[in-house]
Amino acid sequence: MNSTFQFDWQAAFASIPYLLKGIPYTLMISFGGLAIGFLIGILFGLMRISPTAWLRWPAVAYIEIFRGTPVLVQVLFIFYGLPQLIGGPIDALTAGIAAIAVNSGAYISEVVRGGVQSIERGQREAGVSLGLTRVQTFRYIIWPQGFRRMIPALGNQAIISIKDTSLFAVIGVGELVRQGQIYIATTFNALEVYLMVAIMYLAITLTLSMCLRLLERKGLVGQ
Amino acid sequence: MQKTDTKPIVKMEKLNKHFGTLHVLRDVDLAVTPGEVVVIIGASGSGKSTLIRCINGLEEFQSGSLDVDGKVLLPNGKASKALQQIRTEVGMVFQQFNLFPHMTVLDNVTLAPMKVRGASREEAEKTARRLLERVGISDQAEKHPSQLSGGQQQRVALARALAMEPRLMLFDEPTSALDPEMIGEVLDAMRELAREGMTMVIVTHEMNFAREVADRVIYIHKGEIVEQGTPEAVFDNPQNERTQSFLARVLTH
């Protein structure tokens, strides 16, 4: 191997159209999974702080299991393992979305719990003292304030989950990394192509960071 | 003051409250008649805040009976429909104001009338603006609480409670978190409310205010009512030696 390696810009640029085909999959898995994960997070996060033990312990179990196992193992389990249980195949895209959903859901549960618990007790007391029900107090007073405090941590989780989808190349879903691998298999420009892949992830996560910063600035008005 | 209706609005009998091993309230008997202004005084940790927080169910009690406006509250916070009803008819003002920071002043005041009483926005806002005017902050309606001074915030909290047209108002050390120069404006608003005949139970350290507005002063020591009577009787001629030493400590400075 000689050391006069030349970075092949042309190969790098040539890979872009092919890689771009992976972006819709990356975004679908990320945001589809995160949307479901957010719903899971609200449900389990609130169950986690319920005064009722039989609501609390399933939430604790869920959070510990899905936070304590790798997302790669989770997606392999869903894609290869679950079909044996349910007796039919699961397509790779669905498996990817499901894995992000259950995994981010566990983390988001803790984010939701933290956000809700950070609201001073006096807020709840003021709400119920006015005759609002517990549900109304939560909906109009606790949640809007708690949600604002969750935004930075939710953004963090979104960025982590977007990057986690790169692991799902192993189940053959045509996301960014998978597209890169296929391209490299025919051209052997690993350095150039993976650099392009990395730049595309960065473009997605930076865009998200910027949106979050805007949202936070807006959310802080009147706090 | 018109006190034709002598049926008590609050009737507390042999109320006992424990925090773990701590016996916070001991056999407390308290009856408040409509139109009456009752001021509760006592050292910190004496149980005076806990006592009024029992009246609207923010604290549970372990034994005794408690009847608020004809509705019975049960020991140990047994889920009762009565609690919800009581809270719509009993207003409370907190030491830390507890305004909703994510809402404007106006929304703070209209929330409960709209969500609990089912008032329309127009109705609720009309009432809110009238109440804000009454407590002297009508020009701040569109602001958020954090843009207001402590005294203004507490007056908003008062307007917020009054918007539910309560039959009874509870005040839990309403001026203790305020800078000295803002205490007066809050006490003025309360004074006016008392003059209008509102039934009030007030926990406070403002002894001059207590002397002036109270129909009855209650001194509580270690969870027990040890002395009560007219302000003149309690402040000028206390019978119990604990009351005497408490007053000697708070009135000299």
Give a nutshell description of this structure.
The complex is a heterodimer of chains A (223) and B (253). Chain A is mainly alpha-helical and 223 residues long. Chain A is 79% helix and 0% strand.
What does this structure look like?
The complex is a heterodimer of chains A (223) and B (253). Chain A has nine helices and no strands. Chain A has helices at 9-20, 23-48, 53-67, 71-86, 92-117, 121-129, 134-164, 176-187, 190-219. Chain A is 79% helix and 0% strand. Chain A is an all-alpha fold and 223 residues long. The longest helix of chain A has 31 residues, at 134-164. Chain B has 253 residues and is an alpha/beta fold. Helix content of chain B is 38%, strand content 24%. Chain B has nine helices and ten strands. Chain B has a six-stranded mixed sheet with strand order 6-7-8-3-9-10, with helices on both faces. In chain B, a hairpin with a 2-residue loop joins β1 (10-19) and β2 (22-32). The radius of gyration of chain B is 18 Å and the shape is globular. The interface between A and B is medium-sized, with 19 and 28 residues.
Number of strands of chain A: 0
Proportion of residues in helical segments of chain B: 25-40%
Quaternary status: heterodimer
Runs of chain B in which pLDDT lies below 50 for 5 or more consecutive residues are none
| 3D shape of chain A | elongated
Work out the helix count of chain B: 9
Order of helices and strands of chain A: HHHHHHHHH
Q: Structural class of the secondary structure composition of chain A?
A: mainly alpha
Ends distance of chain A? 62 Å
* Mean pLDDT rating of chain B: 93
Determine the mean pLDDT of chain A: 93
Overall geometry of chain B: globular
Rg of chain B over CA atoms, rounded to whole Å, is: 18 Å
Main β-sheet, spatial strand arrangement of chain B: 6-7-8-3-9-10
Q: Which regions of chain A are unreliable across 5 or more consecutive residues at pLDDT < 50? A: none
Query: What composes the largest sheet of chain A?
Result: none
Order of helices and strands of chain B: EEEHEEHEHHHEHEHEEHH
